[in-house]
Design goal:
Distance between the termini: 14 Å
Strand order of the largest sheet: 2-1-11-10-9-6-5-4-3
Helix content: 40-55%
Radius of gyration: 18 Å
Oligomer: single chain
Shape: globular
Number of strands: 11
Order of helices and strands: EHHEEHHEHEHHEEEHEHEHEHHH
Strand content: 5-15%
């Protein structure tokens, strides 16, 4: 893995882009929850530690959902204590997903200080993922967010199907804006706009971000979460950066998909994102060599090559 040592990619800054981007790493949660095989708890903990060592400052550690729904993350109680010290040692943020008040109880009992709830912009996905309507799901999250705030927890609101839905097709922008506004109004500190099945294009991204601003949602409270189903994740990310977004979700090695939307493929690979940002002269604080080595290691644990093009290029994999 010598390409970064040769000074590649060559940084060529572009006008109108942020100087720094915070990468919200989701590989240890969103990535591993979609693996057919269950990864051992100790391996997950090592994965999180290696990601932190590579310079990632926000690493989504696990999910406190019922084990019946996501058996791959049934070890949340065992895993979180193994990595919790990263917050004290290096200031690494370790957000965890919670679906309801019971999940919040479990997370808070272990010392979690950053939580995330996950809503849907469409009725079909809300039914498939949460067995509720959109508004019923929002009502379920209200007491979760309110109590988390009383504990001084930082709350992220995930919103799935912001651009397209496998059952409903294109998702109207005002429909997405309504749910975003509801999540912010109930107390979420930030929102992650999810292109769950990877159908977004740059113009659609700009239109949604502009509409959110027009309804009083500040760009500073928004992050983007793109899937690369149609190869658009990086171009969509660039459109978001041009709008002023500075938080981008990505998954080491391109791990992940969505168990409730079969047309969803992997997340934007963190290495591919870092390569592009480095070339644009944007600081991420991430060591690309260490990150690539981590993804190669995890691919070996999973018994298959990484789908990330950057990982494969830097590790000389075919």
């Amino acid at each position: 893995m010598t390409t970064p040592e040769l000074g590649l990619p060559m940084p060529v800054p572009a006008d109108g882009l942020p100087a720094h981007v915070r990468i919200h790493e989701v590989g240890a949660r969103d990535g591993l929850q979609n693996e057919k095989a269950t990864v051992p708890t100790e391996t997950k903990a090592e994965f999180v530690r290696r990601l932190a060592d590579a310079g990632l400052t926000t690493i989504e550690a696990t999910s406190f959902v019922h084990p019946k729904w996501v058996p791959q993350l049934a070890d949340a109680e065992q895993l979180f204590p193994l990595v919790r010290d990263l917050g004290d040692l290096s200031g690494t943020a370790l957000p965890v997903l919670v679906p309801n008040e019971r999940g919040l109880d479990r997370a808070l009992a272990l010392g979690a200080t950053r939580i995330a709830v996950f809503a849907s912009a469409t009725e079909s996905f809300a039914k498939a993922n949460l067995n509720r309507t959109v508004d019923e799901a929002l009502a379920m999250f209200e007491p979760v967010v309110a109590r988390a705030k009383t504990q001084d927890a930082h709350v992220r609101g995930y919103l799935s199907m912001c651009f397209g839905d496998p059952w409903e097709g294109p998702v109207p922008v005002p429909q997405v804006v309504r749910v975003c506004r509801a999540l912010l109004d109930m107390g979420c500190d930030e929102l992650s706009l999810g292109d769950t099945i990877g159908v977004a294009t740059p113009g659609h991204v700009r239109a949604l971000l502009t509409a959110l601003n027009q309804q009083g949602v500040p760009t500073a409270s928004l992050g983007v979460h793109f899937h690369d189903t149609y190869g658009q994740a990086l171009s969509n990310t660039l459109a978001a950066l041009q709008h002023g977004v500075t938080t981008v979700d990505a998954s080491a090695g391109g791990l992940g998909g969505c168990p409730y939307a079969k047309s969803a493929t992997g997340n934007l690979a963190t290495e591919d994102l870092v390569w592009m940002l480095t070339g644009l002269g944007i600081d991420t604080g991430v060591d690309l060599d260490r990150l690539t080595a981590t993804s190669v290691w995890m691919a070996e644990q999973l018994g298959r090559p990484s789908p990330s093009r950057t990982v494969r290029a830097l590790s000389h994999q075919e």
